[in-house]
Amino acid sequence: LAGDVPLMDIKEAAVVGAGTMGGGIAMCFANAGIPVKVYDNSSEGLERGVSVIRSNYARTVSKGRLSQSDMDDRMAKIEPVTTMEAFQNADVVVEAVYENLDLKKQIFETLDGIMKPGALLATNTSGLDVDAIAASTSRPESVCGMHFFSPANVMRLLEVVRGEASSPETLATAMAMGKRMGKVSVMAGNCPGFIGNRMLGGYTRQANLMILEGAAPDQIDRVMYEFGLAMGPFAMADMVGLDLGWRARKMRGGSNEITARIPDALCELDRYGQKNGKGYYRYEEGSRTPIPDPITSEVIEKVATDLGYERKTFSDEEILKRCVYPLINIGAQLLDEGHA
After folding, report:
1. Residue 171's domain spans which residues?
2. What CATH number is given to the structural domain containing 284?
């Protein structure tokens, strides 16, 4: 992008979806001092979403990282609404519903008839085709991807995904908005998984293969933490929620991918991650500290046996190579393709 591209003036924002991602994105706007309206098609979901936002802020206050008056100010900037018609004065809207292309296209078609001329329309999709979503509007130049990572109010990376028709003003405004939120904004090409999830896919695939082959989740997580990552792949999966991928796979009619067998088996046992206190690890009430759980070991061993794996022990060095090499190789591919 050229440095002299004019930016849109963002005074009011809107978010479609009050779930984990939508609530976190609303917090990002409020934290940046931008009033935001939040819509959900379920009144219960909207109420629950606002309650989770309040709890997140209260937790930060209890840790001394935010004053009560600042919390009150930020909560006052978040307005739950029961219709998307309330978005008509917003300068930007971020759609944050689950990963279903038809649903997202339907929402963007509706937003196209509501949002004022010149408003920025962004999708938080983690890997669907931004051009297909933009094509459901009469203004594809105003559409781009703004992919926040979960939890959106904590994770600093923001992928701004350029659609084929996205205007320089749209992209520059999205990049600047990320900076205003305290994010590290990265421009990404419109390819499956964009940058982060495409790289992450190769990394987590190897981690999931290794637990089938005999490594333990906590060993892999320890190796990656000692390497310098904030957390390993299985603690990360628990934080994001195992049920998100499980539900997406069920909507597609299931998956034959062997690396999905263990997370799917855990979800069948109602082990969704931190959100309900048990996933790959178990969690004490009110704690986010992962504790290895023998039930997970039993699930892994059963799935591995059913698939015919002969299990072995892994050295830390082997784990590190199998996790890091895909990140290097896929990163190089993305650069070569011009998507990063």
Report:
1. 13-189
2. 1.10.1040.50
202 domain-assigned: yes
Continuous H helices in 137-260: 168-180, 196-213, 217-227, 233-240, 242-251
Is 147 tagged catalytic? yes
Local mean pLDDT, 10-residue blocks, the chain (340 residues):
86 97 98 99 97 97 97 99 98 95 98 98 96 99 97 95 98 98 97 92 97 98 97 95 87 84 97 96 93 98 97 98 97 94
Catalytic annotation, pick one of 74, 104, 105, 147: 147
Q: Is residue 245 part of a domain?
A: yes
Question: What whole-number distance in Å separates Cα of residue 181 and Cα of residue 30?
Answer: 9
d(CA 91, CA 244): 30
Picking from 144, 170, 189, the residue at the C-terminal end of a domain is 189
Q: In angstroms, rounded to a whole number, what is the distance separating the alpha carbons of residues 125 and 128?
A: 6
